[in-house]
Amino acid sequence: MSKEHRLGDKRSTTEKGPEPSLNDRGCSRKVSELRGALYRKAKKEPKFRFYALYDRIYRRDVLEAAWNRVASNGGGAGVDGVRISDIKSQANGVTTLLDELHLELKEKRYKPKAVRRVMIPKASGGERPLGIPTVRDRVAQMAATLILEPIFEADFMDTSYGFRPGRNAHQALRAARGHIMSGRREVLDADLKGFFDTIPHEKLMKVLEMRITDRSVLSLILKWLRTPIKEHDDQGDRQLRKPEEGTPQGGVISPLLSNAYLHWLDKLFMEPSGPGGWANGRIVRYADDFQVFAYRLTRQIKAWITDFVERRMGLSNNVEKTQLSQVIPGGDALDLLGYRTEWVRSNGPNGKPWLATKPVPRSMQRFRDRVRSFTGRNRGAVQIDRLCAGQNRYLVGWVGYFGEFHRGR
C-alpha cells in the first residue's frame, strides 16, 4: 500500500500531533491525527493531488466530529423543518442520523435536499441572502470540510484572515495598521459584487482539482453547488431554483470553497510579476472583502485587480464600493471590519498625530440603540436580574470585539 493511502493510520501520524494552526474542536484524537497527517502531506508536497479521500469523509468518527460541530454552532431548520433540538430529543436520534448518513455516503446514495433561502439584514444597511441546508446536509458538508480543510490550509497565505482556523478579524486589522505604519498609505479598498452568488462553478472546480483528484469527492461538492434553492418570490410563493453559479452563504463548506477560490488572488498578487512584486504592495483579505496597501501606483494596482478579478476569475468588482484613499495625517480614514483607522492628533497645542483604530460611527450608534432597548419602557415587566444578565452578555461581547484597539490596552 502506498504512503499516500496510509495517511491517517498510526504509522503516518504518531510521529507528530496535529498542526497548531488547525482547530480540532469536537474531534476525537484519531480525527485530529488524520487532519494533521493531511496537513503535513499537503505542506510537504505543494503539488501533490489527493486521490483517496472519499472514504475518510464517511468514516464514523469523522461524522461524529462533524455532528459535534454542527450541533454546537446551532442554526435554524432547513426545508424539512428538522432542528438540531428535534434530533437530540429523539431516542437514538443522533445515532440514527449518523448511521443513515454513513451508509448513504458509503453506498453513494446520498442526495442533498434543497437549501432554504432567507434574507437577513446587513450591518451596513440592506439585506443579504442566507442559504440554510438541512441539519443532515450540514453534517455531511462539515465532514467534507474536516477532511479538505487541512489540505487547503497548507496552501493558504498569511494575507487571508476570514473563516480560517486560528485567524480572526483583529489579526486582519493589525496587519492593515502595520502596512499603514510602514508607509504604505495609499489604499485600495476593494469589494466584489455578489461574490458568493456569482462564483463560476466550472472555474471553482478547476481550482479544487489542482489539489483533489478523487472524483467521488469532487462529485459530492458539485452536488452541493447545484442543490436547488427554495425561496419566496415577490408574491410570497415558494419557488425552487437550480443555481448555475455561486455557493450559498450559510452552507457549511462555502467558506472553505470561497477561500480556495480567492487564494489565487492572494498568491498571484504577491508573485514578482504581481503588484506585490513590481509595486511592493500588500494585500489583506477577509473572505471577499480585501484591501491593498502601497507606497504609490495604486491606480495601476486597481487596473491589475480589475483585470484579474473580471477576466481570470469571472467575478465583478463593485465599482461603487471600490475606492482609492490616502490614509495620511489630515487625509482619509479606512473603514474595515467595523473599525475606522485614521490619523488623529494628540491633545495639546503640539500634539503629534497617531494612528487610531476605533469603532466606526454606525457601530457606535447601533451600540447606543441596543443599550437603550434593554431599558425601554416596553421592558418594564422583565425581571431586573434577567434584564441585567441580557445587557451584560451584550456588553461583554461588544467590548470583546470593539475594545481590542483601545489606546490603553
Brief digest:
The protein has helices spanning 10-13, 29-44, 54-57, 60-73, 84-89, 93-106, 135-153, 169-181, 195-198, 201-209, 215-225, 254-269, 275-278, 298-312, 361-374, 384-402; strands at residues 115-121, 127-132, 186-191, 229-232, 238-241, 282-286, 289-294, 323-326, 334-336, 339-345, 353-359. With 409 residues, the protein is α+β, with helices and mostly antiparallel strands.
Can you characterise this structure?
With 409 residues, this protein is of the alpha+beta class. 44% of the residues lie in helices and 14% in strands. It is built from 16 helices and 11 strands. The chain has helices at residues 10-13, 29-44, 54-57, 60-73, 84-89, 93-106, 135-153, 169-181, 195-198, 201-209, 215-225, 254-269, 275-278, 298-312, 361-374, 384-402, and strands at residues 115-121, 127-132, 186-191, 229-232, 238-241, 282-286, 289-294, 323-326, 334-336, 339-345, 353-359. The strands form 3 sheets. It has a 4-stranded mixed beta sheet with strand order 2-1-4-5, with no helix packed on it. A hairpin with a 7-residue loop joins β10 (339-345) and β11. It is globular, with a radius of gyration of 23 Å. It starts with 9 loop residues before the first helix and ends in a 7-residue tail after the last helix. Mean pLDDT is 88; it is low at 1-18.
Report mean pLDDT, rounded to a whole number.
Answer: 88
Radius of gyration over C-alpha positions, nearest whole angstrom:
23 Å
How many DSSP E strands?
11
Structural class: alpha+beta
- Approximate helicity band: 40-55%
Main sheet makeup:
4 strands, mixed
Please, how many helices? Answer: 16
Give start-end ranges of low-pLDDT stretches.
1-18
Strand order of the largest sheet: 2-1-4-5
Topology pattern, helix = H, strand = E: HHHHHHEEHHEHHHEEHHEEHEEEEHH
| Strand coverage percent | 5-15%
Termini Cα gap: 55 Å
Shape: globular
